[in-house]
Amino acid sequence: MDFSVVAVAREDDSPVEEPLRVAAVADRLGYREVWAGEGPTWDSFVLATAIGRATERVALTAGPVAVSVRDAFGIARGAASVAAVVGRPVGVALGTSSKRVVEGVHGVPRVRPAAAMEASAAAVRGFLHGKPGEPAAPGSVFPRRLPPPGGPLTVAAFGDRAIATAAAHADRMLLDIVSPDQVRLLRAKLEAAAARAGRTSPPTLASWLPVAVDPDPHSLAQVLRSIAGYLTVPGYSDMFEAAGFGEAVELARTGADPGTLVRALPAAAAGTVGLVGDLDAVRARAEEYAEAGLDEIALVPATAGDPGGERTLTALRPA
């Protein structure tokens, strides 16, 4: 199992510079890659540049960036710009994000997100492999001046159409907060879609998963808060109900606030779609994900009670 690390600003009361601390810890401990997550707080390309300037070795992936908000050329140019500044490979992850972010934050209509993802992935892939001297875009009079960023193209997917897009265009498909059973199902769909697309091997499969080794109450609450946002999402609500957390799902459907939902979720919920517990329990859970077909776990370390995720990332550091 390959481990990478996610450096993303949580939209809570955690310090806004916390992603930089997480990335610095990951680089020092020898992790291969850091994801510079995008959200209402951080622009992913700015964050990736800041991480690159503050670290020495770690490869970078910017995103997922929302395809309804950014055009394909701008996405590829952003990755190439970061790579030129930091002198390291930079990949791009694409996602459809949510209506709450696309429309509620950016004020842009989130229309036909699956179609937008398909068009963006095809275009971004072409832009990522362009060479200096070529037109910056088809029909453009401006030549490309920066070399390609050198990192992989990742597509965040869950629905069938997004999986087909990942199978056709991506080097890696990304899942977000899933159980091993969901990994097993989605892996089968990815392999079938890759075969239909004529690929001899499918993209690698990764998932962002919350993780906390030997968590204190603050870390546990932070993990539960990250899960609470998924309680009413189709494909997740059924899973949580089947796991015995129906009361929290019903509360979420009534519009309960995050604090109420965290209090309603038992501690065991953190282990349903994450790696939480002592080191042996976390490693055993990671093995379950590997057996289900996951190639890479992108660790989203709890930082409340563990600044920079130091305790958790040290425990799971590469050999």
UniProtKB/TrEMBL annotation:
Keywords: Oxidoreductase. InterPro entries: F420-G6PD/mer, F420_Rv3093c, Luciferase-like_dom, Luciferase-like_sf. It comes from the Bacteria. Its EC number is 1.-.-.-. It is an enzyme of class 1 (oxidoreductase). Pfam families: Bac_luciferase. Residues 1-295 form the Luciferase-like domain. GO terms for molecular function: oxidoreductase activity, acting on paired donors, with incorporation or reduction of molecular oxygen. NCBIfam families: F420_Rv3093c. This is LLM class F420-dependent oxidoreductase. It comes from Streptomyces cyaneochromogenes.
